[in-house]
Design a protein that fits this description.
Structural class: alpha/beta
Number of helices: 12
CATH superfamily of the largest domain: Spore Coat Polysaccharide Biosynthesis Protein SpsA, Chain A
Order of helices and strands: EHEHEHEEHEEHEHEHHHHHH
CATH topology of the largest domain: Spore Coat Polysaccharide Biosynthesis Protein SpsA, Chain A
CATH architecture of the largest domain: Alpha-Beta Complex
Number of domains: 2
Strand content: 5-15%
Number of strands: 9
Low-confidence stretches: 218-222
CATH class of the largest domain: Alpha Beta
Distance between the termini: 56 Å
Mean pLDDT: 91
Helix content: 40-55%
Length: 342
């Protein structure tokens, strides 16, 4: 069987409401040389059966893998191991791809002999805008070794963490890697893939096109609190910091990574206070965070924090003043509720 140019890899878990829209966007591509791999990660809402129905309609285009629920990281890995294409494109099953995305990406790849191309996503279904602009020129060819700004963004922010805004050679994917030690990570999990990909790519190209629609799903894992949230975020930041140390032996990037980590720990604290758990449990989760060595190291950068409300909340957390912190969280919850129901 001829190797397709692209494998479009889609992890699927309980997205019955959005799956058809996602797959329709993949079946509408103007570029013909690709396959779609749907990885049903133990769905219980009928999404797995929907995958089979799509495969029955397009047996030459779509392949389906069913597996027991193992989480997003392991579902992505299954996609890597199943895909046969020269290049991998990742799409989350509640999102969509622009109809010309594969055509445009193939042009950038061939024109620049690219190992990896990254592009913009939009939160608008008409692909009309992107949330933020990156400081790169369209068609710019770079590498980690040659581009300090690329190293800085990857090391100290989450602006480029999504694997869904990158197409890359299949050889860059760590197909045989054992990811079992990071299966618990549910916050910033795409960094497990993005950082190694960017690190190993020799020719990285920026595509100044909005090709991906990211659906803001308030029920998604990134918008909910779980008891393991702090450990998940801490371990994600540890991995990010390890690349900062690798890319900059002076330690400057690692220090900037620590300062950024403090903002993420603030977000964890807010999610804890806004959760529906009893006060006793909230205190337990907050204590775990504010006594952890990683938090204490990052807290040393508190004076660099420009946002007053963030600084105020972190000072309260560090000093275990949890009651006013609960009130702060309640205020944030009320503000969010008003914004959602004007």
């Amino acid at each position: 069987m001829t190797q397709p140019f692209f494998s479009v890899l889609v992890p699927v878990y309980n997205v019955k409401k959005y799956l058809d829209e996602c797959v329709e966007s993949l079946m509408s591509q103007s570029f013909p040389d690709y396959e779609v791999v749907l990885v049903d990660d133990g769905s219980t809402d009928g999404s797995g059966e929907m995958c089979d129905a799509w495969q029955a309609r397009f047996p030459e285009r779509i392949r389906v893998v069913h597996q027991e629920n193992r989480g997003l990281i392991m579902a992505r890995l299954t996609g890597f191991r199943t895909g046969r294409g020269r290049y991998f494109v990742n799409v989350d099953s509640d999102d969509a791809l622009h109809s010309d995305a594969l055509r445009i990406l193939q042009e950038y790849i061939v024109r620049n002999d690219a190992d990896l191309v990254f592009y913009y996503a939009s939160v608008k279904p008409d692909f009309s805008a992107t949330a933020r602009k990156l400081p790169f020129r369209d068609g710019e060819v770079m590498s980690i070794a040659s581009h300090g700004e690329l190293r800085r963004i990857l090391s100290t922010t989450f602006q480029m963490n999504s694997v869904c805004t990158k197409v890359f050679r299949r050889e860059l994917a760590e197909i045989e890697r054992d990811y079992s030690s990071v299966r618990h990570i549910s916050e910033g999990e795409d960094l497990m893939f993005s950082l190694p990909l960017m690190d190993r790519a020799e020719r990285i190209v920026f595509c100044d096109h909005v090709l991906y629609y990211y659906r803001t799903n308030l029920a998604s894992i990134s918008n909910t609190f779980k008891p393991t949230l702090f450990r998940s975020m801490r371990d994600t930041l540890r991995i990010q910091r390890s690349y900062a140390e690798k890319w900059d032996p002076t330690g400057e990037l690692a220090r900037k990574c620590d300062a950024n980590g403090l903002i993420n720990f603030y977000n964890v604290a807010v999610k804890i206070t806004r959760s529906s758990y009893p006060m006793k449990k909230k205190r337990e989760y907050l204590l775990e965070m504010v006594t952890d060595p990683d938090f204490l190291r990052d807290y040393s950068y508190i004076d660099q924090m420009n946002k007053r409300k963030v600084k105020y909340a972190l000072v309260l957390a560090k000093n275990k003043c949890f009651v006013p912190l609960y009130l702060f969280g309640a205020l944030k919850q009320r503000q969010a509720s008003v914004a959602d129901n004007p």
